[in-house]
Design a protein that fits this description.
It is built from ten helices and eight strands. It has a single domain, classed as TIM Barrel (Alpha-Beta Barrel). The protein is of the alpha/beta class. The chain has an eight-stranded parallel barrel, surrounded by seven helices. GO terms for molecular function: isomerase activity. Keywords: Isomerase.
Length: 279
Amino acid sequence: MKEYSRREWLQTTAAGVLLAIPRRSYRIGACDWSIGQMARPAAFEVAREIGLDGLQISYNTGADPTYLSRKEIQEQYREASARTGIRMASIGIAQLNQVPYKSDPRTEEWVSGAIDAAQALGINCILLAFFDKGELRNDRPGQDEVIRRLKQIAHKAEKARVTLAIESYLSAEDHLRIIEAVGSPAVKVYYDFRNATDAGQDIYREIPLLGKRLIAEIHMKENGFLLENGPLDWKRIRQSLADIGYEGWMQIEGAIPKGDAVVPAYQKNLRYLRTLFPA
């Protein structure tokens, strides 16, 4: 039997420890609207210049409510993705902030159309936004209507293997109530640490409460600051995500100081995130 020197033993032990620690690779993208390219194929070129892995692309705009449902637009996106190497990570329906899902019948067609578009483009996550006119806090009837509508569309999402991810100022408990009432694995939460903090929530309590199972995707945001310079503790957030085993997409959103250019600001944000979340 070979005898090991103390140095060899330490080297072998250290290697074993490293192998025992789960290694995760994180994919980092950005929202097309946050890099000034909402519902534009040109977003892929900007994303490549920044150095991102992918994009969260918009389903529609106020001027073009069914934009991404059109076959010719889908083909433009496929071509742009193939040309640049930038993946289509998820779809966002930010227009729901102005045309609320809780009350406007047109939005049911948008969500259904977004599921079709996601399936056609190989995307498995759709962000449903609930801010501004779509606000759900202190609106139990609005929440109940959202539950009713999600129940109707959830089976279609399940068949398409697409997740409908709720982003709102609601607490984790309120999100859980909606998810449980809908009763579908296709409905999850789109988590935004800045939004949750601004709403008075304790993100370090909410992250494990929702867990890897219910957090579909996350926004990395500091309103008016670079990520490194804002008030959120990103190192602690990194640990909280590691604790639940999160391995999904991270989309940078709204992390630009006033007056700064988009590309260099996002390059700085990306470099900072890569120190915390390696590829």
